[in-house]
């Protein structure tokens, strides 16, 4: 569903809604979050979708090698469940200071 919405949105021109980030669950029934993220990242690299940070969420305990793999896939960050509001707010504050600031995500070329 996320891919469909983003695809339709990227073709909407002036009517497009811009998303500041994507929260993607790693384990989903049809297409897992890693594969869905790779598709989105490929579209960003092709210039057919605007640049938006992808944050994955998992219920699994992550080791450093897992985090490194996600980053190699182009995922900005991976957070573990249960996700607490204070933790999410802290992370979003750091995200605003990164190269993925809201202003930069609003262009197709990033």
In short:
The chain has 110 residues and is of the alpha/beta class.
Task: Describe the protein's architecture and organization.
- There is one protein chain.
- With 110 residues, this protein is α/β, with parallel strands linked by helices.
- Helices cover 44% and strands 12% of the residues.
- A three-stranded parallel sheet has the order 1-2-3, covered by helices on one side.
- Strand 1, helix 2 (33-46) and strand 2 form a beta-alpha-beta unit.
- The radius of gyration is 14 Å and the shape is globular.
The chain-level mean pLDDT equals 76
Residue share in β-strands = 5-15%
Note the overall shape.
Answer: globular
List unreliable stretches of 5+ residues: 101-110
DSSP strand tally: 3
Into which percent range does the helicity of residues fall? 40-55%
Secondary-structure class: alpha/beta
* Structural Rg: 14 Å
Give the distance, in angstroms, between the N- and C-terminal Cα atoms. 23 Å
Oligomer: single chain
The helix/strand series, from N terminus to C terminus, equals HEHEHEHH
Strand sequence of the main sheet, in spatial order?
1-2-3
Question: Could you give a short account of the major beta sheet?
Answer: 3 strands, parallel
SS field, number of helical segments: 5
